[in-house]
């Protein structure tokens, strides 16, 4: 889950902040030429944000 306005100011207990998700997506998009990136799983660790 992502901590967005859809939660009306109450983030789920283990939500990811949008910046962390954007950084992970940017990392995936910036992979080297010649590398095939098939699956990306983005999930929070056990610590709350």
Given as residue ranges, the uncertain stretches (5+ residues, pLDDT < 50) are none
Number of helical segments with 4 or more residues: 1
Fraction of residues in H or I helices: 10-25%
One letter per element, helices H and strands E, the order comes to H
Structural class: mainly alpha
Largest sheet: none
Distance between the ends:
11 Å
Q: Which outline best applies?
A: elongated
What is the overall pLDDT average? 78
Strand content: under 5%
Number of domains: 1
Q: How many strands appear in the DSSP assignment?
A: 0
C-alpha-based Rg, rounded: 13 Å
List the helices and strands and how they pair.
Elements: H1 18-29
Features of the shown structure:
mainly alpha, 49 residues, single chain, 1 helix, elongated
Could you give a quick summary of the protein structure above?
Helices cover 24% and strands 0% of the residues. It is built from 1 helix and no strands.
Summarize the structure in words:
- The chain has one helix at residues 18-29.
- By secondary structure, the chain is mainly alpha-helical.
- It has one domain (1-49).
- The longest helix has 12 residues, at 18-29.
- The chain is elongated and about 40 Å long.
- The model has no long low-confidence stretch (mean pLDDT 78).
């Amino acid at each position: 889950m992502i901590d967005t306005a859809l939660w009306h100011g109450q983030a789920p207990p283990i939500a990811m902040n949008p910046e962390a998700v954007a950084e992970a997506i940017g990392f995936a998009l910036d992979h080297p030429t010649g590398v095939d990136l098939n699956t990306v799983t983005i999930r929070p660790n056990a610590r709350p944000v």
